[in-house]
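Q: Here's a chain of 480 amino acids. Please give me its 3D structure as tokens.
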Amino acid sequence: MRAMGERVVARAVDHLAGIAEAPIRGDMDVAALCRSLREPAPEQGTDLEPLLDHLFDDLVPRSFTTTGPGYLAFIPGGGVYPAALADFIADTANRYTGVWVGAPALVQLESNVLDWLRDWMQFPETTRGLLTTGGSMAMFNAIVCARERHLGTDIRPGTLYVSTQAHHCIVKAAKLAGIAADRVRSIPVDAEYRMRIDALAAAVAEDRAAGLRPFLVASSAGTTNTGAVDDLGAVADLAARESLWHHVDGAYGAFFHMVPELRPLLAGLPRADSLTLDPHKGMFLPYGTGALLVRDGRALHAVHSSTAGYLPENQDEFYDPAQYGPELSRGFPGLRVWMAVKLFGAAKYRAAVAEKRELAVWAAEQVSRIPGIVMDAWPQLSLFAFHLEGPGLESQDARNAAARALMERVTSRGKVMLTGAMVEGRYLGRVCILSFRSRRSIVETCVQHLAEESAAILAEYASRGPREGVLADPRTDGET
């Protein structure tokens, strides 16, 4: 076992040591490879070394390099190394943490983690929480809490409200919670892509007049498309007046609230009834680390509390995961959060999060000066969005094609990966800085590559004239 562990650690460390020089996106044309991987379960085992070779040499590189410093696409994760060690410990110790009595001291560590999250978000001591696999499951549990409190068993008349820029998981979570799609209202946004409070109020009033029962509004503390932060205080005011449950989706942006000087950017967040957090984003932890905080922990307990003849008697003094979440059999996700915070300390986390905001503001200022680039969304947190304009880009289709080409060409250079998003019929390029490995040098490279590739694209369009949306694809030397 020791030899196997040492070989795995050696390969993992070598992999991480070379991550800065690795292509930011591997060869993704791997359909044939995926077909070749289909196989029945082997009757006999094999040696470890060939398996490690296959994983690290053949399979892992054919993916997005999400751990790399140049991964500025989607919402970056990170994967700090101590979290991997924590998972190794959790898996080898393999203690049962579903109920408190099975591993009381270990469950207390997870309870500490939830208390840390609560304090950073300035939620009250009545708060209880739950570690989840991500924001989607946190959102599902929040909707169920709100549904039980405001609707009871009569759920069909219930309506909930999201902005047109809200994460798609909310509609999916609502469906899983029994709230049909025709009871989900999409509220328009303002020029900064924030939910319009007047439109929200009008939609609630209209539904009440129709005999329906508005029960939840979900605001965003940093949208995926443009990084927009809704007016959380105004939403909280309306929710209080209308007796709505106010959920804040802070999967991307809530951890900026742990930095005191950045809290004004998220004013009103501590007033939420519930909050989604993704430590695999703002705390740089491995994917599969989400969290939910509920201001009145009794609501979370009421939904999940249960017992059975074979289970130990419930107790009230200590946090008990099975009484606040849907899982009885579960892993030990709290250890990875606990170990990372204990090893690094909260101060380093605050400094790292603040640095991402500073880098994004600097990058946005530089990108805005690139000829042809028009800023659509300045960084409210650490994400900004833009598009290209110039001769030959008179139509929206042409501008969309140019922005797509810009994202692809920058990514194809191998140092920085960028992605865009369709926003109200427009394709916008995006830069999101949130990896602990993303420092000033890689952001400078991003700005340089955007400047060079946008100049090339604009020159091609100007020379082509009215042929809209036709550009050389660097991957195929053809046209797209």
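Q: Can you summarize the key feature?
A: The first helix runs from residue 2 to 17.
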